[in-house]
């Protein structure tokens, strides 16, 4: 893939990646958004109304 380079260890195993942000900025942002959402998957949710009420109390 253009703009993507891998760093390998002595055994040829890929250990890191260098990505050209000019070429792949949107893809990187999507990846980070997905990872962020995944970390919050098990968090408790509240309704919009409750969120607004909590915000007003502050």
How would you portray this structure in words?
The protein is α+β, with helices and mostly antiparallel strands. It has one domain (4-57). Helix content is 50%, strand content 19%. It has helices spanning 21-39, 48-57; strands spanning 4-8, 14-19. It has a two-stranded antiparallel ribbon with strand order 1-2. A hairpin with a 5-residue loop joins β1 (4-8) and β2.
End-to-end gap: 49 Å
Order of adjacent strands in the largest pleated sheet: 1-2
| Helix-strand string | EEHH
Total DSSP helices: 2
Specify the helix fraction band. Answer: 40-55%
Number of domains: 1
Number of strands: 2
Taking pLDDT < 50 over at least 5 consecutive residues as the criterion, the unreliable ranges are none
Strand content: 15-25%
User: What's the multimeric state?
Assistant: single chain
In round numbers, the mean pLDDT is 95
Would you spell out the secondary-structure blueprint of this structure?
Elements: E1 4-8, E2 14-19, H1 21-39, H2 48-57
Antiparallel strand pairs: 1-2
Write a brief caption for the model.
This protein is α+β, with helices and mostly antiparallel strands and about 60 residues long. The chain contains 2 helices and 2 strands; from the N terminus they run ββαα. The longest helix is centred in the middle third of the chain and has 19 residues, at about 20-40.
């Amino acid at each position: 893939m253009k703009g993507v380079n891998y760093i390998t260890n002595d055994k040829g195993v890929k250990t890191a990646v260098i990505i050209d942000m000019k070429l792949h900025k949107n893809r990187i942002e999507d990846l980070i958004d997905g990872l962020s959402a995944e970390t919050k998957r098990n968090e408790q949710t509240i309704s919009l109304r409750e969120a607004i009420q909590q915000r007003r109390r502050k």
